[in-house]
Amino acid sequence: MIPRYQKILLVILLLASLGMAFKLWQLRDRAHQRLLTGQASAPTAAPVVAPAEQATLVVANDMDNSLVPQVHSLPLPADPGSRARAVLGKLLDLYAAPDSTHPVPGGARSVEQVFLMAAPAENRSSDAGGQLAVVNLSGTFAAGHPSGLETESLTVLSICATLKANLPGVTEVRFLVDGQERPTLAGHADLTRTYLTTEVTPMEGTRL
After folding, report:
1. End-to-end CA distance of the chain
2. Residue 136: φ, ψ to 5°
């Protein structure tokens, strides 16, 4: 037999539990309504998409060791450094494609960063206000690049020429791998030197 005071206590506890559950449901419903109201009133920002522009990619061909300019339409950011990375990313995407004339794995993700800065006065070419482009490649790209003087040189020179074609102010190019200096790309092409873009800008069909 349950004492009367315990029955009263159980009823009180039950009523309190029901009251708390109802209060929590009300709070949850109000929070949900505030969330919906905030979503409805917040402006929807359209994604920023760079407009497509014509870009000249200087593409290597292993069949005859040539560098051939090709015009492609692709989204190009206004920021020069991002623009440089975009054109080089497209170039390396071409090299990673199944039908590539210069097969090199990695694609656009192989270009980690491109820094643009004033070229050192002692190395500056006759172009006024020349820029130095520092291209930071990924270690995975360097590790997977086919070894050989001609194939490595074609990659390096096509990168330099593509930068010059799309950013005429770039007069010099240096390379880093994972943010560090590296002696060669894959055992042959020198990455310790500064490349002058005036020496690697090809006419159509130019060969090494």
Report:
1. 104
2. -100, 110
